[in-house]
């Protein structure tokens, strides 16, 4: 049943997904209750409050010293994100749970060492009419003040499109704390169009979802370290724009990872994982490269896809909210072509990786991984090895192994994209 609505949904996705991308940012702030290690010198946020009405709402954060900040608005759902250097939140219990005026509620927390974030959920479209950091005066502490003004959706979307897209560069993702970011509200200049092919690197798991675990090493950390090494490697030659689905210990739902790839019109999506075999199933070793298929290539591939797809359940994502696979003849065709490319890349990748690391005895497999289901982005999932295997685990924690293996992946990506770009003609 090739429903028109579904096709529209897919076509509309370019727009919607751009917004969905910001889930990276939104989710980041969900780490709020993971009590950070508090250095004594951190600024302290002691209170936050709202004032005003549904036309103009003011958000005020009290601090014991001024901090630099960056604030920007995002759509679908409407919200304002405020990035600040790491602060020690000592707000009264329940702060942010309820709203006022244009603000539904707000959350806050540490998003990475050195960076904190406040996410303000809005009742509707609003612009940041004013923002300032006020010095302590008249018995009042230093205050970060935002004034939010009601606007219509059209105005909101226009202001978003003229701003540099914060999504493409998660505010703190490059490791520089917000302190380095200039206060840019809301007049950010449009970014120069970047026509380079986009490679999306997707370190699996994150946040509450640890992935597999062994010897005190969690998969989520191992694959993040690997993903960052691969990013650095790819960025060295400057030929690609590299987008990470996460750069810190954040939970990202599987569908959002796919949306990131699609909204960026990625040329390639590479998901990074590390497997584990239960003790009673013996020992296995080496890297395996997976592509998507409706039917698993063998029982182990099926088991693994099931395990990896459980990430959403662990993270509390309600799967009934997620659109199911789009069934449409056009999408079918796109998908078939995409799978051909995915398989081509998987073979190239195996050819390169086997020079750098040991591979599983059956290194190319397929199964129904949710994260590989973008119909228009060639996608593979790499299980770097087994954390349950001593030798593999030694590799996974080794920096020289990581760099060598990331280097081999970068070479395969180069070979794959060189060929694709040659056949596709010059980039537009
Ligand atoms: Zn995994």
Distance between termini? 34 Å
CATH fold-level name of the largest domain? Aminopeptidase
Report the mean per-residue pLDDT as an integer. Answer: 80
| Helix content class | 25-40%
- Please identify the structural class as seen in this structure: alpha/beta
Bound small molecules, deduplicated: zinc ion
- CATH homologous superfamily classification of the largest domain: Zn-dependent exopeptidases
CATH class of the largest domain, please?
A: Alpha Beta
How are the strands ordered across the major sheet? 13-10-14-17-15-16
Query: What is the CATH architecture assignment of the largest domain?
Result: 3-Layer(aba) Sandwich
Unreliable runs? 1-39, 162-191, 321-327
Q: What's the count of strands?
A: 17
Please tally the helical runs, counting DSSP H or I stretches of 4 or more residues: 10
How many separate domains make up the residues?
Answer: 2
Please report which band the strand proportion falls in: under 5%, 5-15%, 15-25%, 25-35%, 35-45% or over 45%.
25-35%
For the sheet with most strands, the description reads: 6 strands, mixed
Order of helices and strands: HHEEEEEEEEEHEEEHEHEEHHHEEHH
Task: Provide the gyration radius in Å.
Answer: 23 Å
Sum up the overall morphology in one term: elongated
């Amino acid at each position: 049943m090739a429903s028109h609505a579904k096709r529209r949904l897919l076509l509309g996705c370019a727009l919607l997904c751009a917004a969905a991308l910001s889930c990276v940012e939104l989710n980041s702030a969900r780490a709020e209750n993971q009590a950070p290690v508090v250095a004594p010198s951190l600024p302290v946020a002691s209170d936050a409050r709202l004032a005003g009405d549904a036309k103009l709402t003011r958000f005020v954060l009290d601090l014991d010293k001024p901090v630099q900040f960056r604030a920007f608005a995002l759509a679908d759902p409407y919200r304002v994100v405020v990035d600040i250097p790491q602060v020690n939140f000592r707000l009264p219990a329940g702060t942010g749970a309820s709203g006022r005026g244009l603000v539904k509620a707000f959350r806050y927390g540490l998003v990475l060492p050195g960076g904190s974030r406040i996410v303000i959920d809005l009742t509707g479209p609003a612009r940041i009419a004013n923002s300032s950091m006020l010095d302590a005066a008249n018995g009042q502490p230093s205050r970060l003040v935002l004034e939010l003004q009601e606007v219509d959706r059209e105005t909101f979307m226009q202001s978003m499109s003229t701003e540099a897209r914060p999504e493409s560069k998660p505010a703190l993702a490059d490791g520089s704390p917000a302190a380095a970011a200039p206060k840019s509200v809301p007049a950010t200049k449009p970014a120069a169009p970047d026509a380079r092919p986009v490679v999306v690197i997707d370190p699996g798991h994150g946040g509450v979802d640890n992935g597999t675990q062994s010897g005190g090493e969690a998969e989520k950390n191992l694959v993040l370290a690997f993903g960052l090494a691969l990013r650095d490697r790819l960025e060295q030659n400057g030929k690609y724009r590299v987008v990470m689905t996460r750069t810190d210990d954040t939970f990202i739902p599987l569908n959002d990872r796919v949306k990131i790839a699609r909204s960026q019109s990625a040329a390639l999506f590479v998901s990074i994982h590390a497997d584990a075999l239960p003790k009673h199933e013996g020992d296995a070793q080496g890297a395996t490269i997976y592509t998507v298929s409706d039917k698993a290539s063998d029982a182990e591939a099926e088991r693994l896809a099931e395990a990896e797809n459980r990430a959403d359940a662990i993270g509390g994502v309600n799967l009934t909210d997620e659109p199911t696979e789009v069934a449409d003849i056009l999408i079918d065709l796109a998908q078939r072509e995409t799978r051909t490319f995915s398989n081509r890349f998987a073979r190239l990748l195996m050819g390169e990786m086997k020079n750098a690391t040991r591979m599983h005895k059956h290194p190319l497999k397929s199964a129904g991984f949710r994260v590989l289901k973008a119909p228009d982005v060639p996608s593979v999932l790499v299980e770097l090895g087994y954390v349950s295997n001593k030798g593999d685990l030694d590799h996974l924690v080794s920096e020289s192994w990581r760099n060598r293996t990331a280097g081999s992946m970068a070479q395969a990506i180069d070979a794959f994209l060189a060929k694709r770009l040659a056949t596709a003609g010059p980039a537009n």
